[in-house]
Amino acid sequence: MPLNSFKIVMDQKFAPEYFVTIFRFLRLKDLHSCLLVNKYWAICAVPILWEAPFKINDSFTPSPKVIQTYLVFIPDETFFELGYSKRIGLSIAKPPSFDYPSFLKEFSYDRFLNLAIANNCCKDIIVELLKIFAINDTKLRRFNTYDYLFDQHLECQDQIAPLVLPYFSECNLIFSSLTYLECIYQWPMQKVKLFNAIAQKCHSIKTLKVSVWHEDEGKVLANLISSQKHLKKFFLINSNNFASFPIQALVDQKHSLNSVTFEDMHNNHDLSETKFFNYSICDLNSDAVDVLSQCTNITKIKFKHCEGLNSPLFLPIISTFSNLISLEYSYGTHKIYDATTPIKLLSGLIKKSCNTLKRISLEWHSLDYLDITQLIKAITQRTINLEYLKIPVYTLEQLVLIHQAFNQLKKLEVH
C-alpha cells in the first residue's frame, strides 16, 4: 500500500482522541514532524505543542516566537492606542490557523515576562496578552511564579513584575481548572490579589508550593487553601512566622493531604542563591503545629535547609505521623555545617512509622562529632520494610549496626 494511502486509512480508522493519546508519548522533535504529515495530524499535534510553550523546567529556553505568535491576537488599534507606531510581533498576512492562546495549560509567569520584555512589550501590552488568554477561554492546569530570571532583562522585570501581577484578578477564569500552583522566592511584591483571584474560581488544586512573607498574604493564602476540595501536596518554602496562617488552614485538607515539605527556612547566607530571600528559621506557632498533628494521612515529609526544627514545639507531630512511607532531612553542603540537627524529632518520627517507612534519607554535615547511635538503632531495630537508606556515619560501631541489620535494602548510602 502506498504511504499516502496508508496515512488516509489510518486517519479514518482512528478517532482524534487516539491520535492525541499516541502523540503525547512522542518526543518534541517527533511531534514537530507530525505537523508536516497532513492537516489531520497537525490538528492533533498543535494543541499538545502549545500546552506548555514556556515549559516550567530550568533546562528549557522558550522560543521568542511564542510571544510573537500571541501578539498576533492583539488588534492593530490597541498598539496605536498604546503609543506604538506599528504593531510588534509577527507580520499578519492572514488570520492564524489555530487558536493558540486557548491551548495554553502551563504558565510560567517569569518566563512569560522575560519573553514579552525581550519582544519590546511594555507593561500595557503584557496586560493585553493576559486579556487575550482570558478572551480565548484559556484554562490553566499549572501556574508558576518564581524568580528564575534571565540576566539581560533582570532590572526591567523587577520593575514590571509587580505592576502586571495584580491584573490576573481581572482574568481569574483562566485559573478555574488549576491543579498545580507554585508561587515561591518571589519579588518583594504583593500577591494578595493573585491569591484572591485563584481562590474565587479554583477549587481543584492538588499541589501547592508557596512562600509567605507578609501577614495579609498569609491570611489570603489560608482562604485559598480552605477553598480547595482535595489538596494532596503542600510545600512551604522560604517563609517566616506568617506561614502559620496557611498551615492552620490545612485542617480543612487533613483527609486528603498526604505530603508536606518544608524548605529553605534558615539564617545562613551561604545557603541562598536567589535574588530575593527571606532569612528566617522555621517559626510556626503552636496552633499551626497542632493542625499538622491532625493531618494523619501524611505519608511523606521532607525538611530541606531548615533551622528551628529542634524546638520542643515540633515534638507533638511525632505521636501523629504513624503512616510515613518517606522521611527526608537535609541541611547544608560539605562546606556548610548543620549546627541544629533535630535528632529527637527524626528519631521519634522513625519509631512511630517503623512499620511503614520504605525510604529514609538523612544528609547533613556537622563540624563536631554528633552522637546518632540511638537514631541508627531506631532505624536498624525497628523498621521492617525499609528499602532505601541514606545516612551520615561517625563511628565504625554505627556502620556495623547498619550492615548487620539491612540485607534487604535495595540501596544504601553512607557518608
UniProtKB/TrEMBL annotation:
Gene3D superfamilies, A to Z: Ribonuclease Inhibitor
InterPro entries: F-box-like_dom_sf, F-box_dom, LRR_dom_sf
Occurrences of domain F-box (ranges): 17-54
Record protein name field: 9783_t:CDS:1
Organism, scientific name: Racocetra fulgida
Lineage, uppermost ranks: Eukaryota, Fungi, Fungi incertae sedis, Mucoromycota, Glomeromycotina
